[in-house]
Amino acid sequence: VSLTAVEADSLRAIMSRIERDFCYTFEEGVEKIQERFPHVSVANVKDWETRNFVETKMINGEKRMFRKAISNIDRLFPGIVGGKKNAGDI
User: Fold this and answer.
1) Which residues contact 23 (CB under 8 A, 6 or more apart)?
2) Which residue of 2, 14, 17, 78 has the lowest C-beta tally within 10 Å?
3) Dist. CA 57–CA 73, nearest whole Å
4) Contact 81, 87 (CB under 8 A)
5) How far is Cα 58 from Cα 20, in angstroms, rounded to an integer?
6) Per-residue pLDDT tens for 29-38?
7) 80 close to 87: Cβ distance less than 8 angstroms
8) Is the pTM of this model over 0.70?
């Protein structure tokens, strides 16, 4: 497939934005989630990923987590802050 210069530039811009948006490795994302919600396990995060509550993408062969995944947890799971809601029940 041959791209025009404009199309190639547009694709580079899109890839750059995706890489910025998915700035955490999966492990870094889990650590950040656990810093904010200490009662959340890796298994919880993997379950949420499977259920599309935590967004990830494979980028250059590495699983990356969406930069807003941590703050989105508050919105997706009201009551999880401070362990008021058991993460396993979500």
Assistant:
1) 64, 67
2) 2
3) 18
4) no
5) 13
6) 999 999 999 9
7) yes
8) yes
Share of the chain above pLDDT 90, in %: 76
Q: Would you state the pLDDT for residue 1?
A: 79
Locate all alpha helices (DSSP H) within the chain, ordered by sequence.
5-21, 26-36, 42-50, 69-76
In which region does residue 61 sit, left (phi positive, over 0), alpha (psi from -120 to 50) or beta (all else)? Answer: left
CA–CA gap between residue 56 and residue 48 (Å, rounded): 10
Give the model's pLDDT for residue 85: 56
Q: Given this model, what pLDDT does residue 78 score?
A: 79
Residues 18-27 have a mean pLDDT of 97
Phi/psi for 5 (5° steps) reads: -60, -40
